[in-house]
Design a protein that fits this description.
Number of helices: 7
Helix content: 25-40%
Strand content: 15-25%
Number of strands: 7
Shape: globular
Structural class: alpha+beta
Largest sheet: 4 strands, antiparallel
Length: 192
């Protein structure tokens, strides 16, 4: 799996869309995520980052290092900021999730590996998820991106489907030498 540098110069050179099953090459992120950052978190971006994000095309693929550099910029301001940005972005994607046929927090958990595979291309690792019972799951992230952002993204995606009392315990972390990050997830669902 590819490893990012915490900080590298932003380089938004477009990449052709890789085939879904092509896991070789650098990890790539679709421009849509960068547009969401520009929309929901621009006040946390440096002027140079804002200028770079202004050039993004939403359907174009870019090297994933750009996302890591931006998330490091956020984390240096406030360690909780990557999680907050991830939470806000993925909460805002509720209509896109519903268009994919997701309707419950459990749907989010069971489709995480497929969504990861679709949303990231290249040598970007894998996600594994297991429902442990009503309102409980285990998610393993073996991926190069900032896990705090992904933690927040999962929280926001669950709340987008009316999960309440969401608690995510980051049991083990790649940043501390673990082979993967492990998130133990609990939530309550509002009665329909």
């Amino acid at each position: 799996m590819y490893r990012f540098q915490p900080k590298a110069p932003l380089d938004f050179t477009p990449y052709p869309e890789p085939a879904l099953d092509d896991r070789s090459g650098p990890p790539l992120s679709q421009g849509y995520i960068f547009l969401m950052i520009a929309t929901l978190a621009s006040e946390h971006c440096s002027p140079a980052t804002r200028a770079a994000l202004a050039q993004i095309e939403g359907t174009t693929w870019y090297h994933g290092q750009n996302l890591e550099t931006i998330l490091t910029e956020f984390e240096e301001q406030d360690p909780s900021l990557p999680a907050e940005v991830g939470k806000n972005i993925y909460y805002a994607l509720q209509s896109q999730f519903r268009a994919m046929g997701l309707n419950t927090p459990s749907d989010v958990i069971t489709t995480l590996p497929a969504m990861w595979h679709y949303a990231t291309r290249g040598d970007s690792g894998v996600w594994r998820s297991t429902l442990l019972g009503p309102g409980a799951a285990r998610v393993e992230l073996e991926q190069p991106y900032n896990c705090r952002f992904e933690h927040g993204a999962l929280h926001g995606a669950l709340e987008a489907f009316d999960a309440t009392d969401v608690v995510i315990d980051h049991r083990q972390c790649m940043r501390n030498g673990a082979t993967c990050c492990v998130l133990e997830v609990r939530w309550s669902e509002q009665a329909a």
